[in-house]
Amino acid sequence: MHSPTKKAVEILGAALTVAFFALPIAFLISVSFKTPDDVLLGRFLPTVPTFENWPTAFAVADLTQFIWNSVITSIAAGLLTIVIALPATYGMVRLKVGKAWLPDFTLSSYVAPPIVAVLPLFYLLKTIGLLNSLSGLILIYGFMNLPVAFWLLAPFLRQVPVAIEEAAALDGAGPLLTLIRVVAPMIAPGIAATLLISIILAYNEFLLASALSQTDAARTLTVGVSLFQGERLQNAGQMAVASLAGIVPVYILALFGQRWLVKGLTQGGVK
Amino acid sequence: MAFAATLGTIGSLRGTGPRRLSWRFLWITPLVAALTITTVYPGIFLIALALSDSRLGRPFRAFSGLKNLAASLGDPLFLVALARSAGYAVTSSVVQLMLGLAIALLLSSLVKSGRFLMSFILLPLMTPPIMVGIAWKLILAPAGGLLNGILTNLGVTDAPISFLGTAGLSWLSIGVADVWQWTPFIAILCFASIASLPADVFEAAAIDGAGTWQTFRRILLPLLAPQLAAIFLLRLVIAFKIFDLIYVLTFGGPGFHTTTASFHIWRRALEQFDVGRAAAETLIFTLVVGAVTLPVVWLAKRTAAAEAGHA
């Protein structure tokens, strides 16, 4: 009807959306090249870009160690999540194991805010000697992200035609072999999306890490950055560098995995 | 033949009875064990902790009965924090569902550039909340913040505004950072729901001469209601988890103005080390989360059932 007006509104809307979602990251990049005096001017772009913040931030805070800790922890936790979630989801969706109660129980365990688990897990890790260790965090993250993994994987598994599994069964393949050889390759995009999201959730986590891992050797990046805020990293430029350094690994992951991520999130988990 | 028959008998023997059941249970055993550690055990442990006099370094010093629970229910600071958590969860979920739906409509009408926009808005979702907080803190800072710089240069304000240090503005600031982080997720889910609707309904509406608003109001919204209810529920659950943004942006301040239940409990446990009391508060908080979410679960199920009834 009002086609030109509608088009204009759409373009304006798209421009505003891009501007709003780009702003914080663009400003972080800009501030990372500002001197402390330049920051105080409150302008968007640096007057004269300085490159000093980057080496200084890495020198005053052990950013490399923190990033490494976060990367190791999140990848190991993501793999643990998949190894547990894939057979369990297959068991529930296709073999009807625990179908009456386990899906609801799994999803409802996601409802409790993470603060609920902080104290119990603190004492658990303390008892088994895994407090302040990456292994402790890997176990906890690997377990905590299971409801999300189930939520993401189930729609993919439901779409696999039953006939294919029946054919595999006729060929004498047991359910485990069918899952590994036949079903898993078919839902590879779903597994990739679930793995990526599990890794990112573990990488981004802060609250549990802040309570469960309080030594420098086992500190993850989110905790490290929050601690050095205003302590060792004195100026905004260095803060921006530390934040960007932590963001880069996830953005690289998102860039390479964007196709799977979009597919994983749009597969219809809310139906 | 006899050999094959024997094999068959063994096969069918293996396939029946309680033995088969126990083998099948192996599929879900690791998941059940993991959920026991993350959900069942914390629940039991918190109840025990709440009934005791406990410090962080020395838990379970003495049995204290309902003292912690009574003290928590009589603590106005905690009760206000609970109300803030619930109020923020509901408000932010309503706002983000509306914004997310608007962006989703934009994504579905801009076919080609919509795909680029979709990949682009994945980034906020992937950004660690701590870093989101730092980025917005730099934008909102009174000294050298981008927003104050713009407002001063435009002559709108004479003195810099302390967005994070002023009562009402501090919540607004947290809300904006939260919108930045989570609205893309809502938009992507809404987009997927719109894409799953039958196209012929919209074609029929266009032929009948229905305008954009009419199509939205009379066709899209009713068809989408069950999915929107489910998305709202998911967002509500996520909203109750907010912690990192508050930790970085306001640390619960100014005063206790942005202290949510999670943040209140965190300070009680890890700053005051009173874990008995913190456990009691956590139990009450869990009940409040349940009380706010359950009606929405019911609503989502009812809309889905009503939709199925129509079809």
Task: Based on the model shown, name its key terms.
heterodimer; A: 271 residues; mainly alpha; MetI-like fold; B: 311 residues; 2 domains; two-stranded antiparallel ribbon; 14 helices; disordered N terminus
At a glance:
The complex is a heterodimer of chains A (271) and B (311). Chain A has 271 residues and is mainly alpha-helical.
Notes on the protein architecture:
Chain A has 271 residues and is mainly α. Chain A has a single domain (55-266), classed as MetI-like (MetI-like fold), CATH 1.10.3720.10. In chain A, 74% of the residues lie in helices and 0% in strands. Chain A is globular and about 75 Å long. Chain B is globular. The longest helix of chain B is centred in the last third of the chain and has 36 residues, at 275-310. Chain B is an all-alpha fold and 311 residues long. In chain B, β1 (52-53) and β2 form a beta hairpin. In chain B, α5 (76-109) crosses α13 (261-270) and α9 (167-195) crosses α11. The chains are: A mainly alpha (271), B mainly alpha (311). Chains A and B meet through α1, α4, α5, α6 and α7 of A and α3, α5, α6, α7 and α8 of B.
The fourth-level CATH homologous superfamily of the largest domain in chain B is MetI-like
Mind telling me the CATH superfamily name of chain A?
A: MetI-like
Q: Judging from the principal axes of the Cα atoms, what is the shape of chain B?
A: globular
User: Radius of gyration of chain A, rounded?
Assistant: 23 Å
Tell me, rounded to a whole number, the average pLDDT of chain A: 90
Number of structurally distinct domains of chain B: 2
Low-confidence stretches of chain A are: none
CATH-level-2 architecture of chain A: Orthogonal Bundle
CATH topology of the largest domain in chain B: MetI-like fold
What's the architecture of the largest domain in chain B in CATH terms? Orthogonal Bundle
Q: Note the main sheet of chain A.
A: none
Q: Calculate the mean pLDDT score of chain B and round it.
A: 88
Q: Which term fits the overall shape of chain A?
A: globular
Summarize the main sheet of chain B. Answer: 2 strands, antiparallel
- Class of the largest domain in chain B, according to the CATH hierarchy? Mainly Alpha
Helical content of chain B stands at over 70%
The total count of helices of chain A amounts to 14
- Element order of chain B: H for helix, E for strand: HHHEEHHHHHHHHHHH
Structural class of chain B: mainly alpha
Unreliable sequence segments of chain B: 1-17
